[in-house]
Amino acid sequence: MGLWARITRIFRASTGAALDKMENPELVLQQTIRDMRDRVPELNNSVAQVMATERLLTKQKENLSNQVVDLDSKIKASVKMGRDDIATAYIGQLQQAQMDLERTTMQADHAQVASKQALKARDNYVLNMKKRTAEAMQLISAAKQAKLQEQLAQTMETFDIGDDASTFNEMREKIDRRVAAAEAKLQLGSASVDSQMQDIEREAMDIQLQDKLLEYKSQMGLLGAGGNAAGKQIGAGTETPKENDVLDQVLLNEANQQK
Questions:
Q1: Contact at 8 Å (CB) between 92 and 13?
Q2: What end-to-end distance do the CA atoms of the chain give, in Å?
Q3: Mean pLDDT of 43-57
Q4: How far is CA 38 from CA 34, 55, 119, 131, 233, in A?
């Protein structure tokens, strides 16, 4: 193989590869659809010209037929009148009109056939254009879908789940720390001096209610003298330690807060 042939082959290969990259199937199909639609007006004009020729020849055929009939009548009238010279002239015109009529009839018949063929060709072209347009639209949709899939594939190739996983773990750890701190604060709040004092107040209220209950029972004679004294002794014996426990708990909580 010669040097020039090798250079030509390399140039054609490079050019073909570049054109393949530049060629967008979607744009090519859209341009093809536009080209097919642009041919429809030209095709309609051609069919219209064929049909106009057919109608013109048909009209000429009718005129020649009327002319033949008229010349035949004139010839007969001239013969009756004994004007052979005029009849002879009309006969010459009649023969020419008959030849023109025969030729025009043949042309009109051919024009009629051509008109039907042109209409059929136009209809077939329009039908084929609609079919090709539908196919092109399907191909364009497939090309768009392929493009989206390619973009998604490229995105997935560049997507590293490890980086995001470390981010999620870091954020999860921070949130866990915040939750633990909040729970600790809530626990401290529930164990505060105010909460303990509320417990002490509820306990004192229960003691007062028990004493009041014993007092009612004593007034109603439901408790004996010994029971009343014992009840009072029990009440007195239980009240003093609980009050002392309450004071000790308050002093202990204040000492812890000062630390």
A1: no
A2: 101
A3: 89
A4: 6, 27, 18, 16, 118
